[in-house]
Design brief:
Layout (H helix, E strand, L loop, with lengths): L1 E5 L5 H4 L6 E3 L8 E4 L15 E4 L9 H6 L3 E3 L6 H16 L2 H10 L6 H8 L12 E5 L3 H12 L3 E5 L5 H6 L5 E3 L2 H7 L2 E4 L13 H5 L5 E5 L8 H10 L2 E6 L12 E3 L8 H21 L20 E8 L4 H11 L4 E9 L2 E8 L5 H8 L4 E6 L2
Parallel strand pairs: 1-2, 1-3, 3-4, 4-5, 6-7, 6-9, 7-8, 9-10, 10-11, 11-12
Antiparallel strand pairs: 13-15, 13-16, 14-15
Helix pairs in contact: 3-6
Length: 387
């Protein structure tokens, strides 16, 4: 029986996919797997028996990835599950920035007691006039699951779309509209685009990428949209750009004291993935990832271990080994089985940075003695008998 703890409420449409082999527990310390959305795990003591964490969403800044990797705890996310919900809100942000709909609505609220409001509106509406987005240039920085959807939708709305992503995947390339112009230098987007939307993960290399230097390269009156992570932008520099007129609007899905209520800022209370459909999709994908890993040892959409899939084990046993990505590890693993006379029928080894993952199918049931021998090999974090 696998025990699963939910640190946040998880949609029932996902939880109901757990088979009878699973039990939801309120005790995190007894959990084999954890499902989480926004709850922070950085101060949490990682349970010794924990095998995996599945984030029902894309961002994993709330999870201590390195600490989990060193303990052989696989961390999953659900890329693409909430992509459509975020895409739709980005499109709303584009339109809200192009036309002062919010200002107009606020004027109507303030004029609610005016008996001649319709007549007054005809005089006032010029104060809220804007521009159309058709024909304007949109730069999409990051062509992952969300960026591709935004780019394609903008093309359909008649925008001239430029995309930048030095790590464009084959799958993303297949899904990207032919009308999107793929640029090789992000400075081309800064220099040419009327609207710029960011869809990259928060890394050391991307943190603060929208700053005084990049803003100086942009067109006068540019609109910047940030529905990825607030720390991708140096928001003090953004405010200075708004005050100078260099930036016409800054649209963010991340409220904080720096931008909330500031002139030129349209700040949304983190609604990007807050749709019933997105939450359901994320829950279903997270549960599927957990089940495939716990039952078969397969890793799909992990952010701290490499992807690895050997399907369902049809042999007597399957052993999963988490270890450092260093030389001579496979030789030691196979030797440990050989000494005990256990034949290996299938094996795969994958690495990701400093860590690696090896799965071995054997024709005899793995004994406690062989597991102990594997655990004693220098560089091994964890050994798990899957079957």
């Amino acid at each position: 029986m696998y025990k699963i703890n939910c640190l946040n409420p998880i949609a029932d449409v996902g939880l109901k996919n757990f088979s009878e082999q699973y039990q939801i527990t309120a005790e995190v310390q007894e959990a084999d797997g954890i499902l989480v959305r926004s709850a922070s795990m950085h101060e949490m003591e990682i349970p010794e028996g924990l095998l995996a964490v599945a984030r029902a969403g894309a961002g994993v800044n709330n999870i201590p990835l390195d600490k989990c990797a060193e303990k052989g705890v696989v961390v999953f996310n659900t890329p693409g599950a909430n992509a459509n919900g975020v895409k739709e809100l980005v499109l709303a942000g584009l339109l809200l920035a192009a036309r002062d709909v919010i200002g107009g609505i606020e004027w109507v609220k303030a004029s609610a007691d005016n008996a001649d409001i319709a007549k007054a509106a005809e005089k006032e509406k010029k104060n809220f006039a804007g521009t159309e987005i058709m024909g304007k240039k949109l730069g999409v920085i990051g062509l992952g699951a969300i960026g591709v959807k935004v780019a394609n939708a903008a093309v359909a709305l008649g925008m001239e779309v430029y995309g930048y992503d030095p790590y464009l995947s084959v799958n993303a390339a297949w899904n990207l509209s032919r009308s999107v112009k793929h640029v090789l230098n992000v400075d081309d987007i800064y220099a040419d685009c009327d609207y710029i939307t960011i869809h990259v993960p928060l890394l050391d290399s991307t943190k603060g990428m929208i700053n005084a230097v990049s803003i100086a390269k942009m067109k006068e009156g540019v609109v910047i949209l940030n529905f990825a992570r607030d720390l991708l932008a140096n928001e003090k520099d953004v405010l200075e750009g708004l005050q100078s007129g260099k930036i016409a609007r800054y649209v963010s899905d991340f409220p904080n004291p720096t931008t909330a209520g500031q002139k030129g800022c349209i700040v949304i209370p983190h609604l990007g993935a807050s749709t019933e459909e997105s939450e359901d999709n994320c829950a279903v994908m997270a549960v599927e990832e957990l089940m495939d890993y716990l039952e078969n040892g397969n890793i799909r959409n992990s952010v701290n271990y490499p992807a690895c899939d050997m399907g369902v084990c049809t042999k007597a046993g399957r052993v999963a080994i988490f270890h450092k990505n260093i030389a001579n590890m496979i030789t030691q693993f196979t030797a440990a089985f050989g000494v005990k006379g256990i034949n290996i029928s299938d094996m795969t080894n994958k690495s990701r940075g400093e860590v690696a993952y090896t799965m071995i199918d054997v024709e005899s049931t793995p004994t406690a003695e062989i597991i102990e021998a594997l655990e004693k090999i220098d560089g091994v974090f964890r050994v798990r008998v899957v079957k």
